[in-house]
């Protein structure tokens, strides 16, 4: 059968890959010779919003569509760029071109399209690639991935509320088998279930507020002699992940003073305040709506830079069980081990983002 397109690009996080995704993929395979899946959030830690690695989501996709159709799939990881849309668009374009070249095709001459469902504001990205004709699929009756993750973490050991039945009815059977194995056997599931309960309790505590709360936090990006100062989180959310020193702003302090206070509390860094303020090289606000699972959280980050000298002593304290100077080059490769959007904040100040 002669296909109207050589490749259709399907962008998503697929957390998890559900019946709606499968319907879109099957339709794509009727319109194009091959489908290029771009699996988003590829360089992030496991969270209740992104519980599965790219490798695990790849297996979900292939298993759901079967061996015959899987031969016509090209599955590639796609990094997020929360604060630089141009870099994200360039990443999509570059990844698609590389995938086509590896497939033996010519990106310049290939007939490429984009497939997706223009359902709400979250689908804005479908308009970012005018060079690719859009195959706009109709809505398919399926629970959203957000709802399915909620059912997964609320199922518990006894599943008194029938969450697993809802999961089974909304994902392909091989995907359900993977989710059930993940729930029963994976240590990561148990950790995420604890974090899920913490986040739900945190949100419940703010439920009586007259308006949804917006939290203000601050983070310190301290660079000294080619090293970045990071702390390892002691408690949920993000227990065990590495993070920039920081925290919530107090009622009686400026945001910069809050950054220095949190820096001292979490790292025991003994540099005098005038020295820190004199080394301030930059500041920026990071406000992506999804940057924190606890709710709408806007952080003000401050970049302190010391080009040379002996590294000052640091040790964990307060909310951090460890503080460490890490080579900048290594820190930039720590995406899956960094908390929330801290990789993006680091990249913003250190030049890669």
TrEMBL record:
Its EC number is 2.7.7.1, 3.6.1.-. Coiled coil: none annotated. It comes from the Bacteria. Residues 213-350 form the Nudix hydrolase domain. PROSITE patterns: NUDIX, NUDIX_BOX. One of its GO terms (molecular function) is nicotinamide-nucleotide adenylyltransferase activity. InterPro entries: Cyt_trans-like (IPR004821), NUDIX_hydrolase-like_dom_sf (IPR015797), NUDIX_hydrolase_CS (IPR020084), NUDIX_hydrolase_dom (IPR000086), Rossmann-like_a/b/a_fold (IPR014729). Gene3D superfamilies: HUPs, Nucleoside Triphosphate Pyrophosphohydrolase. The keyword Nucleotidyltransferase applies. Its cofactor is Mg(2+). Keywords: Hydrolase, Nucleotidyltransferase, Transferase. NCBIfam families: cyt_tran_rel, PRK05379.1-2, PRK05379.1-5. This is ADP-ribose pyrophosphatase.
């Amino acid at each position: 059968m002669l296909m109207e397109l050589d490749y259709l690009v399907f962008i998503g996080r697929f957390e998890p890959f559900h019946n709606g995704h499968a319907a879109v993929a099957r339709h794509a395979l009727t319109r194009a010779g091959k489908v290029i899946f771009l699996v988003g959030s590829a360089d992030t830690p496991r969270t209740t919003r992104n519980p599965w690695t790219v490798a695990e989501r790849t297996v979900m996709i292939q298993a759901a569509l079967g061996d015959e159709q899987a031969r016509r799939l090209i599955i590639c990881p796609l990094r997020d760029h929360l604060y630089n849309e141009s870099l994200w668009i360039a990443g999509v374009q570059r990844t698609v071109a590389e995938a086509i070249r590896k497939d033996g095709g010519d990106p310049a001459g290939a007939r490429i399209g984009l497939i997706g469902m223009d359902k709400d504001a979250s689908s804005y990205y479908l308009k970012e690639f005018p060079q690719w004709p859009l195959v706009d699929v109709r809505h398919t009756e399926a629970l959203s991935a957000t709802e399915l993750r909620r059912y997964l973490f609320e199922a518990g050991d006894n599943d008194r509320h029938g969450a697993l039945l809802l999961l089974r009815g909304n994902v392909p059977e091989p995907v359900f088998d993977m989710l059930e194995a993940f729930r029963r056997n994976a240590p990561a599931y148990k950790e995420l279930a604890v974090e899920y309960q913490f986040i739900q309790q945190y949100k419940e505590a703010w439920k009586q507020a007259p308006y949804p709360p917006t939290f203000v936090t601050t983070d310190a990006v301290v660079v000294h002699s080619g090293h970045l100062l990071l702390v390892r989180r002691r408690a949920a959310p993000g227990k065990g992940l590495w993070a920039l020193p920081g925290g919530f702003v107090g009622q009686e302090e400026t945001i910069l003073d809050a950054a220095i206070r949190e820096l001292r509390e979490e790292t025991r860094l003994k540099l005098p305040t005038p020295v820190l303020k004199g080394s301030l090289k930059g500041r920026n606000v990071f406000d992506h709506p999804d940057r924190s699972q606890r709710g709408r959280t806007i952080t003000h980050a401050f970049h302190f830079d010391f080009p040379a000298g002996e590294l000052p002593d640091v040790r964990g304290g307060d909310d951090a069980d460890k503080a460490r100077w890490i080579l900048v080059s290594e820190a930039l490769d720590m995406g899956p081990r960094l908390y929330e959007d801290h990789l993006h904040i680091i990249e913003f100040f250190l030049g890669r983002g």
